[in-house]
Design goal:
With 402 residues, the chain is of the alpha/beta class. Helices cover 38% and strands 26% of the residues. The chain has two domains: 249 residues, FAD/NAD(P)-binding domain (3-Layer(bba) Sandwich), CATH 3.50.50; 95 residues, D-Amino Acid Oxidase, Chain A, domain 2. The longest helix has 20 residues. Keywords: Monooxygenase, Oxidoreductase.
Length: 402
């Protein structure tokens, strides 16, 4: 039985663990965190990713955990409403698309993978060495072990990618923007509502989803590359507070609440672009291989589909990792490229450069309900996302492997 190690216990890693177990592989997941990472922000599941979730028997559960967001409201520095938009259009969703909190999806995936997967929490890989027997893996805490295949599903700043492919700077491309998200008290009493305060080069949001007592604060901003320690939240909080100092609306109050946030997150909005995702017996999946960035709205869908395809290719190849990795890249590359294309265009609408652009965008929002051809205008917004989300037809690898 092929023995596979997955580094990373989030969406890509857990989806891969489920499908590898379904195909009869022995699976171990190593996760740096001391327990399952169940925090995070709202994410979308669209197109081919919905097919993956459905084949896992999770679609009804995912729908039950929908954020059920209703509306997005835009406000000026004094809190006066200057525009409004349906939550579906704001998120670029249509039809069967589902929005869910990342933590809810992670818990559902973990439960679906079941007891047949070995989990090693509070540990990480420190070295990889290929031998005739497989990949000899050294861990920070646990004893060394050998696996037939190692998969890096450990995100934008992938440790496995660094060990197997080299420096992060070769593959991570900064899109000139940053994002910060964290939990705050719902002092505005929001109910499935998203509030957005646009300012030149800055955008601040706050939202509360269905079944949530608290809220999330979100900060988006354009910036040249920033120097900070990714392991030092206190330094990052100070940086964010300085960048948004003097902003209006609820920004000061959200920054005050930031100090006590249990899940503070700040990172660049970046993509991972690689000529190949595999090296020897090591391969990558999800953000580690092809992060499309939060601006694409498709990172989670890429993780779900990529994990499904990788597991299926390994099953079809019956343990021939080289053949499996070649098929994986051949089947997925176009889908990845189409989804990565979404990011830069989306960013132009998420963070506006000037007050004039903000005024024009808000004017268009107010006029849209009264304009002829309104439906076609909406379709032009959602069409690129729909095309990218369905740019692959996923096969039934279970039937092929049998």
């Amino acid at each position: 039985m092929t023995n596979i190690l997955i580094s990373g216990g989030s969406v890509a890693g857990l989806t891969l663990a489920y499908w590898l177990r379904e195909h009869g592989f022995a699976v171990t997941v190593v996760e740096r965190a001391p327990s399952l990472r169940d925090g995070g922000y709202k994410i979308d599941v669209r197109g081919a990713a919905l097919d993956v979730v459905s084949r896992m028997g999770l679609l009804d559960e995912v729908r039950r955990h929908s954020t059920d967001m209703r509306v997005a409201r835009f406000v000026d520095a004094r809190g006066r409403q200057i525009g409004t938009m349906s939550a579906q259009l704001f998120g670029g969703r249509e039809g069967d698309d589902v929005e869910i909190m990342r933590g809810d999806l992670t818990r559902l995936l973990h439960a679906a993978a079941g007891d047949g997967v070995e989990y090693v929490f509070d540990d990480s890989i420190t070295a990889l060495r290929e031998t005739p027997e497989g990949v000899h893996v050294t861990f920070a805490n646990g004893a060394p072990r050998t696996f037939d295949v190692v998969v890096g599903a450990d995100g934008l700043h992938s440790n496995v990618r660094a060990l197997a492919f080299g420096e992060e700077s070769r593959f991570v491309h900064d899109l000139g923007h940053y994002i910060s998200i964290f939990t705050v008290p719902n002092h505005l009493g929001l109910d499935r509502t998203e509030m957005m305060h646009p300012a030149p080069g800055r955008s601040t949001g706050m939202y509360s989803t269905a079944r949530a007592d608290d809220a999330k604060a979100m900060f988006l901003f354009s910036s040249p590359p920033l120097e900070y320690d990714r392991r030092d939240p206190a330094q990052q909080k100070k940086l964010l507070a300085g960048l948004f100092s003097g902003q209006g609306w609820e920004v000061p109050r959200l920054l005050d609440a930031m100090e006590d946030a249990p899940d503070f997150y700040l990172d660049s909005i970046s993509q991972v672009r690689m000529d190949h995702w595999s090296s020897g017996r090591v391969t990558l999946v999800g953000d580690a291989a092809y992060s499309a960035s939060p601006a694409s709205g498709q990172g989670t869908s890429l993780a779900l589909v990529g994990a499904y395809v990788l597991a299926g290719c390994l099953a079809e190849a019956a343990g021939d990792h080289a053949a499996a990795f070649t098929a994986y890249e051949r089947e997925l590359r176009h889908f990845v490229e189409e989804n990565q294309k979404l990011a830069e265009g989306n960013l132009r609408g998420m963070v506006l450069k000037s007050a004039a652009q903000i005024r024009f965008q808000m004017l268009m929002l107010r006029l849209m309900p009264h304009l002829p051809g309104r439906n076609r205008m909406i379709e032009r917004v959602t069409e690129p996302i729909r095309k990218a989300a369905t740019a692959i037809t996923i096969r039934d690898y279970r039937a092929q492997a049998a």
